[in-house]
Specification:
The protein is an alpha/beta fold and 431 residues long. The chain has helices at residues 11-27, 37-49, 54-68, 74-91, 93-106, 112-115, 119-129, 133-145, 155-175, 220-243, 272-286, 329-335, 403-413, 425-429, and strands at residues 180-184, 198-202, 207-214, 297-302, 318-321, 324-327, 341-343, 354-357, 375-382, 385-392, 416-419.
Length: 431
């Protein structure tokens, strides 16, 4: 007997599975395949929080219908779907607007920023917005960027949506850290200096600020447009294959966030110097001195759109992997000095791993652009979870705030952290 019964070689066996497939196709709509359990969970969560809300009334009606819902009554199923859709939009307005907009462009192209949004995390932000004013502001701002008024392919709106989403996920991450309380800082007025995004308090009642920036791909909007144009060509190729009768259509596209707009003959996708130089330059461009003026402040950079690197060992100046000495890109983007040698994976065994030497100092030690904050946090994604990598600046006291307090704050905020002296390197190598 075959391990998989569907692999039967007999005619009658194949006839049965053919019958089985047709029957399942006929019965599938009766199981309401469009229902998402996470949507139902979200609706119930809001209904339980406010039993007088419209969502609660819809929840009660759906519960009543499910008790007696007939699998063969299409009219009743449609009535249930109408209630489900309405409750879903009320519970998750941003997520539904986002998915609707994505569906309107996905048959044509793809956008790198929108592709980086996790709908399940967005749905969680929607739910938090029902109870928390900070998330409500994020949700309202995001919804404007994917509303019906936004034309398909509006790269500026897509970038803004993603940046707001990332700021909301940073707040979600920080509030989940044990021993940390977080509040959103009120936005500055028209004629006021810009302010950091969040204020944090730790158990000893000391407080600090966090300024969040989401770094973009090399080439910014122009490169996004180039990638979307490439995605259009990929979709055209797929459509042609389907029109020609192909049962499986395939095409390749490349998303390389470090590739310059328009391409470059000497571009090396394996270059660590390119990554270090890009991070350092984007950090310098993103954070302004006024954003560090309210007190001890950490610069927090979300690198989702640039992420090809994001491991604990990147906080170390050097580490060993597969018997090769490699340079940590996070450490060198912050603390690397002119002339520092950078080692990468050799293209083949026997080729030198020395790529070259840095031409500029790192972001935290650049005397031409003095960093006045307490440290740098680089936030990346590990599957669906946020991971924070911290680097302490070797700063003078900021008011009453000391370097030891910066170290303590990074321990609370981050999953991994280090400093210029590689004090915590031993923890990184074993992680």
């Amino acid at each position: 007997m075959p391990d998989n019964p569907r692999e039967t070689k007999s005619s009658i066996g194949r006839a049965y599975w053919s019958f089985h497939g047709k029957l399942f196709a006929d019965l599938k709509p009766m199981f309401l395949p469009w229902v998402s359990i996470s949507v139902l969970d979200g609706v119930e969560r809001i209904a339980e929080a406010d039993s007088t809300s419209e969502i609660a009334a819809l929840h009660r009606k759906m519960m009543s219908m499910l008790d007696s819902l007939s699998y063969s009554d299409e009219r009743v199923q449609n009535d249930f779907k109408s209630l489900y859709d309405k409750a879903n939009v009320l519970a998750h307005p941003v997520t539904e607007a986002f998915l609707k907009h994505c569906h309107s462009i996905n048959s044509i192209t793809r956008n790198h920023s929108l592709s980086g949004v996790d709908p399940e995390i967005l749905r969680e932000i929607d739910l938090l917005a029902h109870q928390d004013p900070a998330y409500k502001r994020f949700a309202d701002d995001m919804k404007k960027k994917v509303s019906a008024k936004i034309a398909p392919g509006d790269i500026v709106s897509y970038n803004q949506f993603f940046e707001i989403f990332c700021e909301a996920t940073v707040l979600r991450y920080l509030r989940a850290r044990e021993g940390l309380q977080v509040a959103r800082v009120p936005e500055a007025g028209k004629d006021e200096e810009s302010r950091p995004d969040f204020q944090c308090w730790i158990a000893d009642e000391s407080s600090f600020f966090v300024e969040v920036k989401t770094l973009d791909v090399v080439g910014g909007q122009f490169r996004h447009g180039e990638m979307m144009a490439d995605a259009i060509n990929v979709q055209i190729d797929i459509d042609k294959q389907i029109a020609a009768g192909s049962r499986i259509a395939m095409a390749e596209s490349e998303i390389d966030p470090y590739r310059p707009y328009g391409g470059s003959e000497d571009y090396d996708p394996g270059s660590l110097i390119k990554v270090i130089d890009t991070l350092r330059a984007k950090l310098k461009q993103a954070f302004k001195p006024s954003q560090f003026a309210m007190g001890p402040t950490f610069a927090l950079a979300v690198i989702d759109r640039l992420e090809q690197f994001g491991r604990a060992v990147d906080l170390a100046p050097y580490y060993q992997e597969n018997q090769t000495c490699l340079s940590g890109v996070f450490w060198h983007s912050a603390f690397g000095r002119e002339g520092t040698p950078i080692f990468k994976h050799p293209d083949f065994e026997g080729k030198p791993s020395l790529e070259g030497h840095l031409a500029r100092p790192g972001y935290l030690i650049d005397s031409t652009n003095p960093f006045t904050g307490a440290g740098l946090v680089i936030m990346a994604n590990s599957q669906t979870e946020r991971v924070a990598y911290g680097l302490k600046a070797d700063h003078q006291p900021i008011g009453d705030w000391t370097r030891e307090q910066s170290d303590h704050a990074l321990q609370i905020m981050c999953d991994f952290h280090n400093d210029q002296g590689n004090t915590y390197g031993y923890r990184l190598y074993s992680s």
